[in-house]
Each structure stands twice: as C-alpha cells, then as structure tokens.
Inverse folding.
C-alpha cells in the first residue's frame, strides 16, 4: 500500500511491483488526465528540473521514460553548456560537463510516470481517497485507515505523503516510535510565470540560473524551457516576504537581478499566465535512521523523510534513488531489519542535498535551526569550489556530478582535488 501518488509514491510503486503481487497507490487528489498542477502538489506550478541521477534511475526502472519525456516536450541539456549560470558575481563560461538533465513541468513529469506505473501488472492507483491514519498496534503497522472510516490491510505501508506527512501523529496513535526532526527555517518563496518560447529567444543557452551572493543578495532567477514551447520563469529568494505577486513587481525583481539575461528575455517574450506564488518556509528532515526499532510494516519515502530548499532541484532525484534503496532492502530483509537497512541507505542519499542546501541557507543570518557540524568550513570550501569552477572545467565537472547525486561528496575532499580547488580559486580571485 502506497500513500501518495507524487514522484515518491509512483517510483515506490514501480519498485514494489517487482516484489509484491498487488500494489495499491492511494491519493486524496483528483489525479488529472492532462499535465496540469493539482492541489496536493502546490509546488507543481514552479520550475522543476530532473537531475541526471533521477533521470537515469527512472529510465532504468521504466525503460524509454526519458525518450517519452523529451517527445512530450521536455528539454535535455548539458549543465555546463545549456544552463547559463550566474553565481558569485559572474556568468560562468559555457563548458560541457557531460552531465545532462531534463527540464519540463512537474505535472508533465508526474503524469508520464503515472501513465507508465498504471500499466504495470498488479498496480492500482486510486484517486480521491484520503488516508487519515494507520491500523495496527505497538507491534507494527498492518494497514491504513481512510477518511471514509474504511480500513485496508497491507503487508507494507509506504508513506509518500510529501512534506506535510502526518507520520508522527499516525505512528504515535499506535504506540510506535517516531523520529527526531530537524527543521531549518529559510523563508523561501517563489513567484513564477509562463511565457511563449520562440526559436532564438536565448541564442546561446537553453535555461538560466542566476544565484544571489549571500549575505547581501537574496533573490534568484530561473528560466527553464517547458513543454508547449513555453518558458517557465521564476523569481525566488531566501527570507523573501516581498515575493512578487503582481506583474510590475515581478518585472522589477527580474530587472534587478545581477545578470540582465532573465530581465531581457521577459522584456521580449509574450506572457501566457498569471503569476503563481509557492512558499517553502523550512527545510525538514525526519531522522528515521536514528530509530533503534523502526516500526515494522511501515516506511516513509521522499519528502515525507526529507524536504530541502529546492534551489538545487534535488527532491525528485532523491525520491527516485530512495525507491531504489527500498527495493534493495526488501530483497535482503523484512520487518524492522528491512526498515533499518532502508533508512540507513536513505540517510546517505539525502545527506548531500541536505548539506548543500542547508549550508547555503546559513549564509543568511535570518536562517534559524540546527547548524550542521563544521558548517563554517564547509561553506568556505564550497565557495572556493564555486570560484575554482568558474575557471576550471575539471573542478566544475566534479562539483556538478556531486550536486547531481551521481558521485559521493567524498570526491570533493580528496587531497589532490582540494589542492587544485585552492590553487584555482586563488587564481580566480586574483582576476577580480
Ligand atoms: C518551489 C519548489 C521547486 C522545486 N523544484 C524542484 C526541482 O527543480 N527538481 C526537483 O527534483 N525537485 C524540486 N522540488 C521538490 C519536489 O517537488 C519534491 O521533492 C517532490 O515533489 C517530492 O515528491 P513526493 O512524492 O515525496 O511528495 P509530493 O510530490 O508532495 O506528493 C505527495 C502526494 O501525497 C498526497 N497525499 C498527501 N497526504 C495524503 C493523504 N493523507 N492521503 C492520500 N494522499 C495524500 C498528495 O496529494 C500528493 O500527491 C521543488 C519543490 C518546491 C517547493
């Protein structure tokens, strides 16, 4: 039984379908036939990129998925030559990294996934079914309780209800242990708008990513190509109560970005939608891996475990990789032992995104919450890597591969790599 038919729920269902005769996915939303945003996934209006690792994972589990996504209007590009990155006061050079990702709307990515998962033998997706609790006892979870009062038994319940997961309440009600939680308040907000995309709009690039330099700048700008020959343009920021809700403010923030490219583009392009705002008050992580006796019969997956500041676009890839970890744990163990092994693997998967995002978040004095250990050194070194990446393709490629969850972060701390970073960062700073 999978609760939630978002990216986590669908990838979990795919993995479970190899191991169980029957997999039922429940979602409280009306799941639309068309790729349009829906209520249960409010972030679906905002830009979403599928990182190389997530793309690889989904394509391996659902062969042909990547080709379908591109045929439906997704755009694949190299991080180095496609994404016009402006960071730490300069536009980065166009140099191939060999790491490719896909931009499309979140509803399209989810809709294609759902189409594929629906066709798997033994999988049933039921919509407009809200779960309000779990059944079982202090010995373990045995199923779910629906809003209607109906109960459905299951050998395993996979909680993919997203960042608003009510697992703490649900598990406590059965007398089961709940995990400690980390919360880092970032006050992130995004405003987005769709524009018509015409050939030649951005002659040298496929997308734009303009990042602020903390602590004195707070606003970022994103432009991604999406299906239907449209640009999805977003203005976002940390501790950003003044997130633009009207056209005049949206365009003003766009013009004030340190790289003029985004402002110039929307000055020429035809708007196709209103401005839609999404707020992300805090990054949240539930430390299931610390539970000595994780509840048998139940696991959480996706944002229900870890939901980080989306600036690096890692959430969907994390969900897909975690589903893979669930499959691997199920192949070896059952009950508590399975859950323990699974949560340990997920802790490793989400650690990099958590460190990346939370590290950057603490560049702002308004950010509150538990600081990762060694954060000052980490942030200082991250900045040296960013400076070095501006002039050194090898450093850039290594960094991008870690950020895209293709390589472990340990590659960035190998002695020869650290020396190269420090040398190149020094060179870059001397250039002014
Ligand atoms: C502004 C923004 C931009 C982002 N950009 C990116 C990006 O570029 N790339 C990227 O990879 N990630 C991005 N993310 C993160 C990404 O959206 C999430 O990590 C991802 O959607 C997690 O998927 P999920 O399935 O865990 O949760 P969700 O997608 O939130 O799905 C949860 C599902 O559970 C259902 N549900 C909830 N409660 C119940 C219940 N009680 N009963 C039944 N059903 C229930 C909901 O209806 C929903 O379908 C972004 C997030 C935000 C906020």
């Amino acid at each position: 039984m999978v609760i939630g038919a978002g990216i986590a729920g669908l990838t979990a269902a795919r993995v479970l379908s190899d191991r169980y005769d029957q997999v039922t996915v429940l979602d409280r939303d009306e799941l639309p036939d068309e790729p349009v945003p829906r209520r249960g996934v409010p972030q679906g209006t905002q830009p979403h990129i599928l990182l190389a690792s997530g793309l690889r994972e989904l394509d391996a589990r659902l062969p042909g998925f990547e080709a379908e996504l591109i045929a439906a209007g997704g755009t694949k590009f190299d991080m180095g030559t496609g994404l016009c990155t402006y960071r730490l006061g300069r536009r980065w050079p166009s140099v191939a990294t060999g790491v490719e990702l896909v931009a499309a709307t979140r509803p399209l990515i989810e809709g294609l996934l759902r189409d594929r998962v629906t066709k798997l033998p033994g999988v049933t997706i039921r919509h407009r079914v809200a779960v309000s609790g779990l059944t079982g006892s202090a010995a373990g979870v045995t199923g779910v309780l629906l809003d209607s009062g109906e109960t459905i038994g299951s050998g395993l319940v996979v909680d993919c209800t997203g960042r608003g997961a009510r697992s703490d309440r649900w598990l406590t009600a059965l007398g089961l242990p709940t995990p400690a939680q980390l919360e880092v308040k970032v006050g992130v907000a995004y405003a987005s708008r769709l524009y018509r995309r015409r050939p030649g709009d951005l002659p040298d690039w496929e997308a734009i990513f303009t990042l602020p330099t903390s602590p004195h700048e707070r606003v970022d700008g994103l432009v991604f190509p999406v299906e239907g020959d449209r640009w999805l343009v977003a203005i976002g920021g940390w501790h950003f109560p003044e997130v633009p809700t009207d056209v005049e403010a949206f365009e003003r923030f766009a013009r004030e970005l340190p790289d003029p490219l985004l402002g110039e583009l929307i000055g020429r392009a035809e708007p196709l939608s209103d401005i839609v705002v999404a707020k992300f008050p805090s990054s949240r992580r539930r430390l299931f891996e610390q539970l000595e006796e994780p509840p048998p019969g139940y696991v959480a997956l996706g944002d229900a475990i870890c939901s980080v500041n989306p600036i690096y676009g890692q959430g969907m890839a994390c969900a897909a990789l975690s589903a893979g970890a669930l499959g691997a744990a199920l192949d070896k163990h059952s009950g508590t032992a399975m859950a323990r092994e699974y949560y340990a693997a997920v802790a490793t998967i989400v650690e990099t995104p958590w460190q990346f995002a939370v590290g950057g978040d603490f560049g702002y004095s308004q950010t509150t919450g538990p600081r990762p250990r060694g954060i000052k050194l980490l942030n200082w070194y991250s900045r040296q890597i960013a400076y070095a990446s501006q002039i050194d393709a090898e450093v850039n490629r290594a960094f991008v591969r870690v950020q895209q969850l293709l390589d472990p972060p340990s590659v960035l701390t190998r002695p020869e790599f650290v020396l190269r970073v420090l040398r190149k960062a020094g060179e870059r700073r001397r250039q002014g």
About this structure: The chain has three domains: 2-41+107-182+282-350, 184-280, 375-430. The first helix runs from residue 7 to 17.
